[in-house]
Amino acid sequence: MDELSAYALIALSAFLSATLLPGSSEAVLIGLLAAGNGEPAALVLVASIGNVTGAAVNWTIGRFLAQYEGRRWFPVDPDRARKARQWFDRYGVWSLLVSWLPVVGDPLTVIAGLARVGFWRFLLLVSAGKAGRYVMIASAWLHWPFP
């Protein structure tokens, strides 16, 4: 696989993983690192940008499509939305630092849009959390001895 394909793959995987679609960009990142495809720092950067862009799509859905919440086609399951709202109400805007968490992270970014969190504040907190996750994953893969 050439480097451009590796970067495109991690960007797409990270973007889709951050939306409400299922995905595992962490596994793709580890696979690319293990195969030696792409520079590790660039892979982390591209994955972070893709993942944050997907989260921004979620924020936009929450911010501008809130009037359709509860409809069958709306991308957030009502039970997941309720749990994410409870989390958001309890921890506030700082909960966006853990928007990378499985299950609650994606709906949390939609809830931030519903709660009308300012976009730049949202972007800063989500970027810190999501980029931090990819840095930790890549660092662990590159620096821990695996059999």
UniProtKB/TrEMBL annotation:
<dbReference type="InterPro" id="IPR032816">
    <property type="entry name" value="VTT_dom"/>
</dbReference>
<feature type="domain" description="VTT">
    <location>
        <begin position="25"/>
        <end position="138"/>
    </location>
</feature>
<keyword id="KW-1133">Transmembrane helix</keyword>
<keyword id="KW-0472">Membrane</keyword>
<dbReference type="InterPro" id="IPR051311">
    <property type="entry name" value="DedA_domain"/>
</dbReference>
<protein>
    <submittedName>
        <fullName>DedA family protein</fullName>
    </submittedName>
</protein>
<feature type="transmembrane region" description="Helical">
    <location>
        <begin position="87"/>
        <end position="104"/>
    </location>
</feature>
<keyword id="KW-0812">Transmembrane</keyword>
<dbReference type="Pfam" id="PF09335">
    <property type="entry name" value="VTT_dom"/>
</dbReference>
<feature type="transmembrane region" description="Helical">
    <location>
        <begin position="43"/>
        <end position="66"/>
    </location>
</feature>
